[in-house]
């Protein structure tokens, strides 16, 4: 009996010890759940003055897409920062406020890419040693860029949560300063300078669409704009695969969500920040979630119509407008913050093709034609006759049913849109006996499919008709 008691006590004590160690490891005095920091406009204004000449005051021009979208759309071009994203603002503010001893020992952060790139560049400019912990699935492009800009890259973890935990462990072991890239108070203050610039550049702005991952940009911008122009509506935008803030607000507590692959990796934060969650209630009018198919389409349209590249996270505001999620903003002056442009060419190519497919401009089909010398030539002539371009074609001779003299071609064709696609389908059905269209070939009914977060405004006006 005594032995049993001894074993039970030992097991219990070990469990308690493990839990305490885990809590100590992840404790960050700047992001303490028991003592969240209130972010003030005066601190954001001080950060703005502090960083004059150190970060780019990005442009906010009227978009060519305005007429199509039915709003007077302005794009805040944060991808013009040297590091290619808005993160540079918060990082710069946090670094210049470090003590001399902290600067000498160095800093460490966890990042999927953009925060690490910004930290690498600004640390290098200020002569501060920098380490960045990235998940194994972080973009090779972003990882290489951060390393090229001077950071020591540590690959660890399946997601941001595991990378952050490891970064905090290394910080304690090597006496480095850990900077939370989406929740440190100085980071939030720096991101808020975007809001000050928006009001200065467009004093009559009606609404601002802000991408939301951990929440630093949304919180900082909302605090700044609501102070300067309280009647401006602030919307936080997430994708259906990265909606950690919406889930937290629904449950009224910070919750962990699993995030797998996403086109908006910069929004891939499993658990939102302590300070961001605490500060944004009552100042953000609504959270909106947009499907990632719309994000791919937004990237494509921004490339084609605005002539610049925006990564998935930076395109979510435009995507939400394209998806018809803001009928209340029709005819109003709207700013979409294009947060970054750090996207590798592989992801860009996939986004463009998926965007085209979603709009009926790419069609994949199979058709069996005669294997005589003029068989393929006749097919190509028909396609060219109605203005269809062949992007790719692959022959299949062995595994084809039907006549032995026929050959099946797998074709990817480019059209002008749904009406042109229907013309192509009708032509193939008219002239060939064997064919297969594997994807939808008719224009889908436009339905608004969105998960809306709770309304956060004390006097909601955002969805009034």
UniProtKB/TrEMBL annotation:
One of its GO terms (biological process) is L-serine catabolic process. Pfam families: PALP. It comes from the Eukaryota. Residues 57-340 form the Tryptophan synthase beta chain-like PALP domain. GO terms for molecular function: L-serine ammonia-lyase activity; threonine deaminase activity. Keywords: Lyase, Pyridoxal phosphate. Its cofactor is pyridoxal 5'-phosphate. Belongs to the serine/threonine dehydratase family. This is L-serine deaminase. It comes from Spodoptera litura (Asian cotton leafworm).
